[in-house]
Amino acid sequence: MKKALLAAGYILVLLLAYVALQGLFTFIAMFVAILWAVFKGQMSADVLEHLDNLDSALSLSANDAYIQAMAVGLFLSTISMLVFLHLIKGYRIKPEIFRSISSNSLFLSTMLVFSSMLALNIFVQWFQLEDMLATEFEGLTRNPLGIITISFLAPLLEEVLFRGAMQGYLMRRYKPWVAILAAALVFGVFHWNPVQVLYATLLGAVFGWIYYRTGSLLSVIVGHVLNNSLATAMMLAFGNEEIRPLPEGMISPIAETASEVVTFLFFAFLSLYFAVRLHRALPPVSLPWQDKGGDIK
After folding, report:
1. Closest Cα to residue 165, out of 61, 59, 12?
2. How many alpha carbons fall within 13 Å on the CB side of residue 184?
3. pTM of the predicted model as reported, rounded to 2 decimal places
């Protein structure tokens, strides 16, 4: 019981630190953005077009400030959290991380993530879960700083936090499957957006297994960057519109469902294939997980 309480406390401290930093920097950025707009009188073309309606103008101005503040807040809180994890020795990023996995294993792990992404995207859509952050995500993907943060910095931090710090801590105290599932569940719930919770939990389990088998954080960082970058590219290309291969009405619901099932099974089996290939390409997991230092060389 004591071990479980210590683990829960450690995870809670890390999560609270990240939430606090994100909230602090977002608030500061929002405050500065509003002051800048008020004192400099800088309004976007969209706002000027709605000056006949004061409520609309204020709404658009506030939305622009909110998106900009979110982008700046995410960027600064991500950098700050990486520094925080380094200082408390939760996980220290070292040059060795970039030499910690062979090119073949990195290729297999990346292909495993890619095929899993495609399978899970279909699987999650069947539940028709609400996407509460679609508007915010679309706004961030149209902000240069938001694109950099979502596509590159957020994956780096989340893998350092959830796999390096949390799963690494749990792996040295519990059975591997317990550590992998616990870190994946925390990773999923932390996203709190219904459609993301299920997807992130399942993909987090894939990341967790890859990290356990390879001992390399680089393998999951690359996979996570791939996931977020593709999501950003799809949002930029299609926005919030549902992507369909054919216009609605040209294919029957039964045929459409059957096609989705076949596609899901194809990518699910492909994921299994890459997982088996990766497993066989790697040596058995050895004792470095017992090292109290926080990462595997």
Report:
1. 12
2. 22
3. 0.85
